[in-house]
Amino acid sequence: MQRLKQHVLVSRGGVSSASESFQQILIAVQDVSHQVNRMNEAAQTIHRDTEKLVGNSDRIAKLAETAAHDTQEVAAASQEQTATTEEMSAAAENLAQMAERLSEQIKRFTI
Fold it and tell me: Domain of life, per the record (predicted)?
């Protein structure tokens, strides 16, 4: 009987030790689960931020494209204005020469 009692006590100690081990495993599993949840939340945040970044990059690219197009239009308008100014200058010079010749012709007439 004593032997049986001792065997029960030893078994009880083993069960208690196993129970503590299982409790520690449970705590570790819960901790790992919590860490996995936090990593998942962080990954979702990174994904949302990445989507925002891509959207902002697309908007910036469109703005840059519009600005480049507008710059080309301004450059073309400037070239046209320069050409028109040169034509007007040449026409003014031609008119000045014509006026000078007309003035010389008028001097020939006497009243």
Answer: Bacteria
Domain count, the chain: 1
Over range 61-75, report the average pLDDT.
Answer: 97
Domain that residue 94 falls in: 1-110
Q: Does the predicted TM-score (pTM) go above 0.85?
A: no
Cα(34)–Cα(104) distance, integer angstroms = 104
d(CA 85, CA 92): 10
